[in-house]
Automatic annotation (TrEMBL):
It comes from [Mycobacterium] manitobense. Residues 206-291 form the Mechanosensitive ion channel MscS C-terminal domain. This is Mechanosensitive ion channel family protein. PANTHER family: MODERATE CONDUCTANCE MECHANOSENSITIVE CHANNEL YBIO. It is found in: Cell membrane.
Amino acid sequence: MTINSLLAVSTSERWSGFWQGDIGRWILTNGIHIALLLIAGLLAARFINWVAQRISRRIDAEYQESDQLVRSESAKHRQAVASVISWVSIAILFVVVAVEITDALAIPVGSLVAPAAVLGAALGFGAQRIVQDLLAGFFIITEKQYGFGDLVALTVAGIAMPAEGTVEDVTLRVTKMRSAEGEMLTIPNGQIVKTVNLSKDWARAVIDVPVPAAADLNKVNDLLHEVAQKAMEDEGLRQLVLDAPQLMGVESIELDTVNLRMVARTLPGKQFEVGRRLRVLVIAALRRAGVVTPGDGGATPTVGAIVHPATAGGAEESQGPVEQKK
């Protein structure tokens, strides 16, 4: 028998002896069981994530294939609930896997009661904020305060200015939102003091129009009513507003100007776009009518004064400087 054959026989005997020993038998029984538990847990977690992402993509596809300009409230809520359910399911799955591994290792659970109580008391003081975040997130989802795609302004404890942006993800612990500058904001749910949903069911565009105090308000009102009618004739605006814009009247009176307010009910989250378009229409109408703000001093033809009938005698004086500037 050669040296190589002797080495092979001795190696095989030692290897077979290893599997017949205590460590080898433990690996063949408990070790394989624990490995299978870990692999099954990871595969199940990936499957849960895949299902949640598939549901989210299906909701997005339904929205993109439809003729809706904004997401429905039910779609927002379903997407938020799918995210929360997937997160909770993965957490429960890992707890179950940890319990099974503990059982496979034959660790006596009774002996861990006392240390667990001490550890739980210590963690209880340090994890109060986490528990607060989880409870707040639970009520945010169940009360449908906001969901995926909502435009919100959140007042956060310890921060003076509210955090504004579009919600991109809601879990039991945090809310992730994208600001207008493209920044991703992650806010713990327990730190949210007040929630302002700017895209819940419907929104309102508010346009304040300053006009000179000497202007004829009746003519300005007629002018703004014409703007409201033309807004409903605009195909782009008609799809965004729920009803015709309304002129509320005088909102405030200042030294040189009178502020008139126009409002319009819009689709959720479209109030800013509608406000911008209406301001363009108002500015164009005021420019055509020759109405100018006092700050322009008559130097800019965006607003020349509409002469009040009581001051008709000074019509030439009011219009003269504007014509000279032209």
